Amino acid sequence: MIQRAVGWRTVQQDPWQRVACTVPLSAYGRGARRGFRWYFRGTSRVAVQSVEDVLDWLGTCSYIRDEALFFEADYWQHPCTLEHLRKGDCEDFALWAWRKLAELGECVEFVAGRCRRSAAAAEDTPGDGHTWVHLRRDDAVLLLDPTMPSPSSMLRPLDAVRDDYLPEVSVEASFARFAYVGYLHSSTRSARS
User: Fold this and answer.
1) What's the pTM?
2) How far apart are CA 48 and CA 39, in angstroms?
3) Residue of 166 and 11 predicted with greater confidence
């Protein structure tokens, strides 16, 4: 049994522990309206040969909220649409990176959860809804946050940023779905940013 205390990170179990399970699509956010296989359909027009190429291309895109771009609170673009518009928000960037890294043969996972955006955020606040990608290499996990301001700041070791992110649900490139212990003690759900 998980016991909550005051803080969002104060639980008896590690909120980064994940469990394979049937996670409903709606748990990923309001914009998750299509199965994850759909995001791998169609031909990508952006050629990448490395993780650095993925980061560099994302660095050329503009962050814009769904309300301004699509006049909807939460809309997930297809990766090919992002390639055309070069504008989007965290889900759009993360879905594109997830697909491109999977095409490179990397062990990757699309993650939806929460993120505290500043060091001044209170320890007991759940943070804003957010999506990112986990890149697994050997025994290390790297967190790719495609909304960071530069390619050099997008990819960081999980151990360096784990206190600022709280994973809830994820999906691997094999389309296996997972719930994180963090999902079990996240009491509010909001649109991803």
Assistant:
1) 0.86
2) 17
3) 166
- Tokens 């956010």, located at residue: 29
Distance from the first to the final alpha carbon of the chain? 31
- Distances 86 to 26, 42, 142 between C-alpha atoms, Å: 26, 17, 24
Rounded to the nearest 10 degrees, what angle do helices 90-103 and 51-58 cross at? 160
Tell me if 82 sits within 8 A of 96, measured CB to CB: yes
* Sign, CA torsion 50/51/57/60: negative
- Show the domains of the chain with their CATH numbers: 18-184 (3.10.620)
Structure token pair of residue 116: 């505290």
In this prediction, residue 138 carries a pLDDT of: 87
